[in-house]
Amino acid sequence: MKALCAPLVALVVIAAAPARSTLAQTPSPSPSPSPSPPPPAVTATSPIRLMAAVTVRQDFTSVEDQTDLLQDENSIDGLRARIRFGVEYRDPQSVVAGGLRFSLGENPNPTSPFIRLGDSFRAQSFGLDQFYLVVRPFKNRDAVVFSAGKVPQPFWRGDQGTVRSELVWDDDVSPIGLVLNDTLHKSSDEARPVRVENTLGYFVMEEPTDFRFAGVTGKAYLIADQLHVQAKRVSGAVAYYAYRNLNAGLRSPSFVPGQGGFVLPGTPPFLLRPGLQLTNNQVNFGPGADGFTEDDFDVLDLLGQVHVPLPVSGGGDPQVFVLGEYTRNFRPERARNAWGASVGVRGGGWKGSGAHPYTVYVTYRDVDADAVLATFADSDLGAGTAVKGFEAGANYRFQRNLVLAVSYFDFEGFPRKDNSVSRVFIDLTWDF
């Protein structure tokens, strides 16, 4: 394999704050002269959080399929970048919160925010990556949380180190819709913490205009619900994803003898048009009109996590964790199951002179073509569905504002888990 060397730069979180004054109490009268009262105390109280992120990545990709066996190596290497900035209002005591975030990339593929560098020094375009409003109407702000807009990923996908499940949702996808999060139980025993919460969401994926629209009309949408239970060392979640009207936008030419014909070019559904991840199974409805085998997907997702401390001295209190997942789509007759597992070690901190925060992990997945909706699944390990293979990675934060990450991918991908792909990412992240 080629020698690996490269940079990556990312993530920025800055807090700025106006000041609020509180007056010290006037001393009580005394026979002797009393000293002048101290100046007012000044505290920062602004809930506004500014953020920015500049990421540069060296990407080494090698692709091999059955038609390339007698050809030279097919390598797609390049230097890529991701830039994001935004603002968030987040006051723990406030009823209302919200935020905005802008990002490069994600157009036309929402799972891919990295753009390729080397464009004759042309300017790049930003898109609105997140925009959301949060309302917490009760005195206990965590009891009920309502969110609307293009929200940050609302479903639990693991919480150890930097590893999150991406079998159903790519890390970069922010769905648009309404989310209701309820904290059903929260233990007050710090020695045995238990938290039970439920997340219910309604998301619009595509909403074409019905006016004189030919073909499959109506919106493609998702209703999802996840119940999450978290204890001291063990966490688990069960989720149900109901995708509806996936073939919205499908149009095929037709001819009815004696009545007439529809001869405009056929088109696939919106979710199967170029630019998106197109690795779900498809059926042909006419020239140029390939659609989903099923108009609806009903996906059950089971996710569990265990983490325990390593009995070693030093290493920044290392924890071993295992994250496992299984999904089943009840609609298709075949190619409808998936499973994955991640094993890793995370640790480190900022107290003392020990190790700083780090994560080392390995992930393996075997995902059938219609196990989940490929459009929004992991874009790095498999680029959707119809994939089996593994990812190995490590990252270390040298300072509070500097982290280095290396990831290696080796998998058999679309169309029949027989297209060999290997990738290496080298990322450097600077926070300021």
Individual helix count: 0
Q: What is the C-alpha radius of gyration, as a whole number of Å?
A: 26 Å
Give the CATH topology.
Porin
- Biggest beta sheet summary: 16 strands, antiparallel, barrel
Report the β-strand fraction as a percent range: over 45%
What's the total number of strands?
Answer: 24
**CATH architecture title:** Beta Barrel
Give the CA-based shape.
Answer: globular
Q: Order of strands in the sheet with the most strands? A: 4-5-6-8-9-10-11-12-13-18-19-20-21-22-23-24
What is the CATH superfamily label? Porin
Helix-strand category: mainly beta
Query: Average pLDDT across residues?
Result: 85
N- to C-terminal distance? 34 Å
Question: Which segments are poorly predicted (pLDDT under 50) over 5 or more consecutive residues?
Answer: 1-39
Helix content: under 10%
**Name of the CATH class:** Mainly Beta
Domain module count:
1
What sequence of helices (H) and strands (E) makes up the elements? Answer: EEEEEEEEEEEEEEEEEEEEEEEE
Structure description:
With 432 residues, the chain is mainly beta. The protein has a single domain (43-430), classed as Porin (Beta Barrel), CATH 2.40.160.10. Helices cover 0% and strands 49% of the residues. The chain has no helices and 24 strands. The chain has strands spanning 12-15, 19-22, 41-44, 48-64, 74-89, 96-103, 115-116, 127-135, 144-150, 176-186, 195-206, 220-230, 234-244, 254-256, 260-262, 282-284, 290-292, 297-309, 319-329, 337-347, 358-367, 387-399, 402-413, 419-430. A 16-stranded antiparallel beta barrel has the order 4-5-6-8-9-10-11-12-13-18-19-20-21-22-23-24. The chain has a two-stranded antiparallel ribbon with strand order 2-3. It is globular, with a radius of gyration of 26 Å. Mean pLDDT is 85; it is low at 1-39.
